Amino acid sequence: MLDCVGIDEVIFVDDAFSTEIDLVAAISVMDKESAGYVLGTDADLADPDVRRAAAEQTLDRAGDEELKQIRQRALERRPETAADHAAASELASLMPDGRYRGLSLDQWRTAQGEVISEVPQRSPLVLFDQSFENEGESDRYGQRLLREFADATVGQHAWWGLMTHTVPPEGESEARREIAKQEGLPENRFVLISKQRLTDDKAAFSKRLRTMLLAPAFDELFEIVRAAAIDAQTTAVTEARKMTSEELEQIIVRSSLLEGVWEPETLVRVFALLQRPSVEQAVRQNDRVHELIASMRCVSEASRELGDGDADGAQAPVEDESLPGPAWRLQRTEIFMDGDYLNAVHLPVELGDIFRKTPGQRAFVLIAQPCDTVIRRSGTREPELTHCVLAEIKALSGDDLFTQFTLRYFDETDGTSRAVHLNRFSYVRSEIVDLCSFNANGQAMIRPGEEPSTRMEPALIARYKVLGQLAGSALQLWSELSAAVGNEARPQLPRLLGWTDGDLLKPAQRDNFQELTYPLLRVGRLLDPYARALLSRFSQYQARDAYLHDLTRLS
Known about the structure:
Largest sheet: 9 strands, antiparallel
Structural class: alpha/beta
Number of domains: 3
Radius of gyration: 34 Å
Number of helices: 21
């Protein structure tokens, strides 16, 4: 997990590491077993006076190295530091070699200036004990140390948190809120961990550590989104102010009165329609966001490996007096997602995706159960979706409404509505439409062997690799067979290979069989709830009774 976020060093500041101790006094109040362990003797030390005398004699003749070992054993067995030593020992065992330091309060006071000054070059995780009574400070002195370090590293690549034996696991959340309030710490950054988790439940400790490591990333991500939202809000206000009073009356007042909606709610909706796409695009296209998400996924996966357990006929254009241009354009942003954005950020194909056959303007919409289109982390679907429905989008026909689903404001140039013709559809291999999501221009194309875009989601990267292997094999076989058969048979090879679906989408190869491409381009997406309404209508059409025809239709 530490490597995921680039942590170079883990420092645990605890009075358990202090070597300042009155050994004779400490040993004399121990039980006989602990005293014998500390002094390294099997003698009967049941009597306190005997323990004191044995301690004095042993310490008088001990050399420097032996004295150091006795002091360390005494700290381990002293009742007030035994729990701290056990937790510190467990923490050390979990940390990578060479990246962990345990420091006493005095040692931290000596080292903190250097640690803070090196933060731009080295990224530390500093954990503070809460109580430093064994070094002459208060039982809450660690909170002060943490606040000082947090204040000194604001906006820098550093992690910090509090570990204490004074708070049980079930009291972490309440204590965290109270301490954050007392010390003025940001609740979204401050994490408190009970030391009991180290000795009693390492999986739970791993989960709390994960929370600590993710906190700065969430903090930075929130700031990026906040800044994008502010920028988009300013732009939205500017765009809204460009509307004339007549347009605003139509959108804010008259349309609201028609539907019984409070006018300010409609105005808020207008701002949202202007603002949200800009925020989403700014965030999706921010390289730092992708870096943060990658580190978050890495931490989460590493934590799982440690066992923390959280498991997976055209209408007339609508731009007239009854509906001003800005109104239908705003409405359209709520119904359709822009194809340029959709493809640039490599969103996987799903219900409602709109395609255009090239060359030409024939348009189709993908109809499939949303759960069936989801790509799993393995790069496959479960169960695998071999084919999907592409229903044709054509002009509205006023005499056959049963077989049509209206797409209002479909044309992005003039707002003309179209219709999905439910009786004009084709079954197309899912691999073909998936290819569109791999390319920033939305083209159904793949070059086996090329690396996928780093902006793809992990599942889509896996899908890219799966289809890359399939396409590579198909191209190789296509090449070999093309060399072996005559000119008349070559056009039939794609059909024989199973990579074509009738005459709708015929594949082509380029660059001497280095690229597989289809005449299909993803140009947009029908959004919810409209996409689900389309799915429902298509299902109803498929389930209609036999011979259910229009009784008024004569031709």
